[in-house]
Specification:
Helix content is 15%, strand content 36%. It is α+β, with helices and mostly antiparallel strands. The chain has a five-stranded mixed beta sheet with strand order 6-5-9-7-8, with no helix packed on it. A hairpin with a 2-residue loop joins strand 3 and strand 4 (57-66). The radius of gyration is 24 Å and the shape is globular.
Length: 344
């Protein structure tokens, strides 16, 4: 059960005349928006059992529903898996594998394309809009059995006849979650950035049982711009949009803070040096002046014993939800010895 206490907040004259009872509008104003990884959390003010009002305070209990995701894919005569009925779209739990109750993969691409001329290369994974139409490419899955965890509504399709690199590094678009507890006077407020990463190697059967002469190190870099922070106007726009549940303008606003191509190249070069520098250990922070801005780079190194060619590694970053962190622009890059992938 998730609950929150709203107390010692400013009340209107009407609320004061009604024996200092906070209105629904006041409760909504001060009760925080909570977003957890697996459930949708909403304050329930219409159910008497979910809200208790007293003098100058109110306790609210959240209604929580499990998050679900849809997976769309192109149709194929006979289905992608012969012994399981095909379904478009599949509806699955958030952060789950696309498998049936018996542990069988629901989607498995044929080894060859329809005219038997090209071999399977990978699945392409796209974001989808409200109509199920695919938009931007999110990641790739290099296994014929589609084995990536589902973190959003996706459109996936198999690709044939393309070259597959010997080592790949992929990352989902970071998922932000919020945890808050206490009350409106002394709340503890944390944000979690969930980075679901994947590494694939055709040269190494499995990272934790590497018997080759190749030494592979995998991890992520978090790059924070210490100079160009979110403007007051842009921050207010994002806050007001969140409060009113209006159109999400985050992507449009962050476009104005993207690195220039020249800075992007220099940052990538710096990260490549850090990736190969074994003296820079896990959780190490370094600051660099690139262009007109200063960047703080944090290196997170994964334990190879937790890496296989089929699983995904979950890296969760925790931040205090204060004004300073809300104004920083962060970029996340997943890395291996041979490749980079980028998300902001």
């Amino acid at each position: 059960m998730v609950s929150y206490v709203v107390r010692n907040v400013e009340l209107s004259t009407e609320e004061i005349l009604k024996d200092y009872l906070p209105s629904d509008e006041t409760i909504t104003k001060y009760a925080p928006r909570i977003d957890t990884m697996y459930v949708e959390t909403k304050w329930n003010l219409t159910d008497e059992e979910k809200v208790e009002k007293g003098k100058s305070q109110a306790t609210v209990i959240a209604t929580q529903t499990k998050k679900m995701c849809k997976v769309y894919h192109p149709t194929l005569e006979g289905g992608y898996y012969t012994d399981i009925a095909d379904s478009t779209p599949y509806t699955v739990d958030y952060n789950s594998l696309l498998m049936d109750e018996g542990g069988n993969f629901l989607l498995s691409a044929p080894e060859l394309n329809e005219d038997k001329t090209k071999k399977f290369s990978y699945w392409e994974v796209y974001k989808v809009n409200a109509n199920g139409e695919h938009t931007e490419l999110v990641t790739k899955c290099y296994e014929r059995n589609f084995g990536l965890r589902i973190m959003s509504d996706y459109y996936i399709e198999p690709v044939y006849g393309k070259e597959v690199p010997s080592l790949t590094a992929n990352i989902n678009v970071p998922v932000l979650n919020r945890e808050i507890y206490g009350d409106s006077i002394s709340a503890t407020d944390k944000l979690y950035a969930d980075l679901l990463t994947a590494f694939t190697s055709t040269a190494i059967p499995t990272f934790k049982e590497n018997t080759t002469d190749l030494k592979v190190e995998c991890g992520v870099f978090v790059v924070r711009n210490n100079t160009s922070t979110l403007s007051v106007d842009d921050r207010n726009t994002l806050v007001n949009a969140a409060i009113s549940n209006s159109k999400d303008t985050t992507s449009d606003i962050l476009t104005n803070y993207k690195m220039t191509p020249e800075v992007e190249t220099r940052v990538k070069s710096q990260l490549e040096e850090l990736a190969l520098n074994s003296s820079v250990k896990n959780n190490t922070n370094n600051t660099y002046s690139i262009g007109s801005d200063d960047y703080r780079v944090t290196k997170f190194v994964f334990d190879n014993n937790s890496l296989t060619n089929k699983n995904r590694i979950d890296k969760v970053l925790r931040y205090t939800n204060n004004t300073a962190n809300q104004n920083y622009i962060f970029t996340v890059r997943i890395c291996s010895n041979q490749g980079f992938s980028r998300y902001s």
